[in-house]
From TrEMBL:
Cellular component terms per the entry's GO annotation: plasma membrane
Protein source organism: Aquicella lusitana
Protein name per the record: Uncharacterized membrane protein HdeD (DUF308 family)
Lineage: Bacteria, Pseudomonadati, Pseudomonadota, Gammaproteobacteria, Legionellales
PANTHER family: PROTEIN HDED (PTHR34989)
Membrane-traversing stretches: 20-38, 44-63, 75-95, 101-122, 134-152, 158-180
Length: 191
């Protein structure tokens, strides 16, 4: 019963603020279209951002290792090495985004092929309710992996940005659909 109350409360909040969901959905759609339209630029932005995150993560782990060292914790050296690995990986990605993009695209292609095969095998052997959707998902994932690998390394320059754009587009579309559903829900509206 409490789960229904929580969901109803969340629905009331969404209904009251449906305009914000619509606005964010439109922003995501515009960003998604921009990323798809300029997939190469979106790829490099995404890869450099990943490099920055790795670099900052390295700094945090290194600082944490020295904090641990002062507290006489035995994991100092391992933390320091992990932090340095993060730091170096981040710098490598930042200073060589093309190589990082090619490498990440290769990993992504292999991951999609393996993930697709596992989903297909799982859906055919387990056959839960609506197992056909899981089979379809596996086939699509496998197909995407094959497309990436068939066009690798040339596709590396745009594939990550394209996928980021598609994700943003679908995220935006989801927000818009939630907003339009919430707008027609009989509940309190923002005044």
């Amino acid at each position: 019963m409490s789960a229904l109350k929580v969901n109803y409360q969340e629905l009331l909040v969404i209904t009251k603020n449906w305009g914000w969901f619509l606005a964010w959905g439109i922003v995501f759609i515009v960003l998604g279209i921009a990323a798809i339209s300029a997939a190469t630029i979106a790829t490099f932005i995404s890869v450099v951002f990943l490099g920055l995150l790795l670099f900052l993560g390295g700094v945090v782990v290194i600082v944490d290792s020295f904090t641990s060292w002062r507290q006489k914790w035995g994991g100092f050296l391992l933390h320091l090495i992990m932090g340095l690995l993060y730091l170096v990986a981040g710098l490598m990605v930042i200073y060589s985004p093309v190589l990082a993009t090619v490498s990440l695209t290769l990993v992504l292609g292999v991951f999609f092929i393996v993930q697709g095969l596992f989903r297909i095998i799982y859906s055919l052997t387990i056959q839960l309710l609506n197992w056909g959707w899981n089979l379809f998902n596996g086939i699509i994932t496998l197909f995407l992996g094959i497309i990436i690998m068939a066009n690798w390394p040339e596709a590396s320059l745009y594939i990550i940005g394209l996928f980021v754009g598609i994700d943003l587009l679908f995220c935006g579309w989801t927000y818009v659909m939630i907003a339009l559903s919430a707008r027609s829900f009989p509940g309190p509206k923002a005044g």
